[in-house]
């Protein structure tokens, strides 16, 4: 098992990020759906647990077989590579579980996220994990402006070092020390557990997944900042309306002949 904690600093408030993240998730899903592949939203509804926790529950299927490494596709039965995602968004704390129906308990990716207002990534154990997990944990600070992105994912309009928000006056994030200086600021502390139990492939696949998750978080949060003028000022009800429309669009796009591009972002 790989345990990594990603710390993503953002130039917005914790309250703003709740809307920004949901908006960006909807947009990323549309961007990566088509040609028979993509995201299918089966449930998106409020939930309440026995302990009183309340939030929004989503259940999605990711049909993205073309993104799986060739050495996995070669041994996996046809149609067995769909991913099933459950997410419990009790903002500012969220949990997401990603599984595969064919591999069952032998494969999982679990995200636990805490969003902290005013933080610049300095909290050492924001999610209060056990001493045993702390010893295994690798901490990765993501700098959305200065970390190198894959050349195929680079777009000037999604570059925080170039983007300026007309509505908020934020950006461009071209100061090398922007994380220490920018206001407003918040941090997503994202703890990720990656497990792939398959003799002979475990280390290789877990490393591939870890790299993919890192790139996904970097691309997603670069887009989130550069879409500020699109989500800024939206309400949660605006987002729910957008999600309903997005579900309709995804269902249509998944059936058309155009290919998907990039990697779809999982829920927070």
UniProtKB/TrEMBL annotation:
Biased composition regions of type Basic and acidic residues, renumbered to the chain: 247-256
UniProt-annotated stretches for the region Disordered: 247-268
GO CC term (a single one): cell periphery
Segments forming domain Phosphatidylinositol transfer protein N-terminal: 1-248
An annotated Gene Ontology molecular function: phosphatidylcholine transporter activity
Highest taxon, organism lineage: Eukaryota
InterPro entries tied to this protein: PI_transfer, PI_transfer_N, START-like_dom_sf
PANTHER family per UniProt: PHOSPHATIDYLINOSITOL TRANSFER PROTEIN (PTHR10658), VIBRATOR, ISOFORM B (PTHR10658:SF11)
Protein name (database record): Phosphatidylinositol transfer protein N-terminal domain-containing protein
